[in-house]
Fold:
Amino acid sequence: MLTIDVEKNGDVAVVRCGGRIVRGEEVRTLRSAVVSEKSSRIVVLDLSEVESLDAGGLTTLLSLHQWARSRGVQLKLVNPSHFVREILTRTQLDHVFDISTLDHALIVLGGNPCCHTRLAATC
Structure:
């Protein structure tokens, strides 16, 4: 099962994913969540809570990468879980995607990382 939480701040959308990004309903849910943010200049996919990623999930990430590029939207992958990082490295897709930490991405984008982190007690 895939859970998605979207937080919008100006023209930046942070899409937090948890669970499994696998062929079927999960990839359709992810695609729908990202594509619905087409008015955003930047879409950040937080993959820190993703436990599993199969070929269908990889294909969807690549498809979303192409979708974003064709619309002038920046797609950033942040905080990939150890499993996801390993898959991206083995498939050499870590050279295709813009991958960083959420805090780093938000600082570069001019946002306040404190206000986007669930772990922060106060800003």
Notes: The beta strands are 2-9, 12-21, 42-53, 74-78, 98-100. Residues 55-70 form the longest helix (16 residues). The chain has one domain: 2-116. The radius of gyration is 13 Å.
